[in-house]
Specification:
Length: 383
């Protein structure tokens, strides 16, 4: 049985879906790498909302997806940009998400780290930015989760130079109860973060970023670098103080960065591991045995899908992530908070379906095919 999919030239092509999923089962905890999947939120499709309304979240489905990730041994990176922070999910919704997910993690022994930002304010002085960070840090620490200090739009707007970043981050690190993860999110993910760390020159920005870490190595568990630049991540990784981890956030080059080289490797905190969860977990367990080539054989073929989902404008990758969660049966609908399901085209969805199906990512390929056909029919594509 074939399905007719739109191409990028305005035509239709026949595709024969895979009959069986990739056989993957949960296994032992990872031993060689620490791996987080950033996780999406599931919208409540019955809520009477507008794009400007506070997010209406289906809490049961959202938390069930976190249990899915934990079951495969992955940590959950909660309330990050994958969860639509700043693109549909406001701070009130994020705080509730943090509390609920952290409680679930504690109940099952799952690993969790949560995003700390400043999105309760649109803009403000450095004092106000610092206070916003402190408010969110208190919520995350009270939940029992590890904190991820995320890049702040408000700080990017308020800071006059590198010294302001050094002061704000130094203050937060001095008062953090436990070591945190620092997150450098590039402007391809959020244009408002252009010039973060006080300079549009990436070499200068890198020096400031590393200066923050060098001043407080005991308070930094690791860094997440999301610049989609493999060589820069490797260079930063080699300059980190002893004991500070690098968590790759490079959704274009993650297999080679996680595999590493003779001088080290990256751990992982990735949005693409939301749809790749079981397969990614299987690959890391292969790597745990020392089988680097087997790890690459499993994970390298996924890069084409990841690059497709994260193509420009990269910040809309969440739409493809949620689309694949729907096709995979993790939620009953393709609706997103803020109406973000409209952010990608039908040909984009069709290619995402084809690539994911080819990898065997859908637990029930027939369900995925039926849902894809339903979407195509909605767009007027007859089968």
């Amino acid at each position: 049985m074939t399905i007719r999919l739109p191409d990028f030239k305005g035509g239709l092509r026949a595709y024969e879906p895979r009959a069986e999923p990739l056989a993957v089962t949960p296994g032992a905890p990872f031993t060689s790498r620490t791996v987080f999947s950033a996780a999406h939120v599931v919208a409540d499709p019955y809520a009477d909302t507008t794009p400007d309304s506070p997010a209406a979240v289906d809490w049961d489905a959202t938390l069930a997806f976190r249990h899915h990730l934990w079951a495969h041994g992955l940590g959950v990176a909660e309330a990050m940009d994958t969860a639509q922070r700043g693109m549909g999910l406001d701070w009130a919704g994020a705080a509730e998400l943090i509390r609920r997910s952290a409680a679930e993690a504690k109940a099952v022994g799952g690993r969790i780290a949560c995003g700390v930002g400043t999105d309760q304010i649109a803009a403000g002085s450095l004092v106000e930015v610092r206070a916003a960070y402190e408010e969110q840090l208190a919520v995350v620490e009270a939940s029992g989760a590890q904190a991820i200090l995320m890049a702040s739009r408000a700080l990017a707007a308020a800071a006059s130079g590198p010294e302001d970043y050094l002061e704000v981050y130094g203050h937060l690190l001095r008062q953090s109860a436990e070591p945190v993860i620092l997150h450098w999110l590039g402007p391809m993910f959020d244009p408002a973060l252009e010039g973060y760390w006080g300079s549009a020159d990436l070499d200068a920005a890198t020096d400031t970023f590393l200066e923050v870490i060098a001043a407080h190595p005991d308070k930094v568990d690791g860094i997440k670098v999301s610049l989609l630049d493999a060589q820069r991540e490797i260079d930063i990784r080699r300059r980190l103080p002893q004991g500070v981890r690098c968590y790759t956030g490079d959704d274009f080059n993650y297999p080679e960065l996680i595999a590493g080289d003779e001088k080290g490797f990256s751990h992982a905190l990735l949005g693409i591991f939301d749809p790749l969860g079981p397969l990614a977990a299987e690959a890391v367990r292969v790597l745990d045995t020392g089988n680097v080539s087997g790890f690459r054989e499993l994970l390298d073929p996924t890069v084409e899908l990841s690059r497709h989902l994260f193509q420009t404008p990269t910040r809309f990758y969440k739409t493809g992530v949620v689309f694949l969660a729907w096709l995979s049966g993790h939620q009953s609908h393709f609706t997103m908070v803020g109406g973000l399901q409209s952010a990608r085209s039908l040909p984009h969805f069709a290619r995402a379906y084809e690539l994911a199906d080819g990898l065997g990512l859908f637990p029930d390929p027939k369900l995925a095919e039926e849902r894809m056909k339903n979407l195509l029919a909605l767009y007027g594509v007859a089968q």
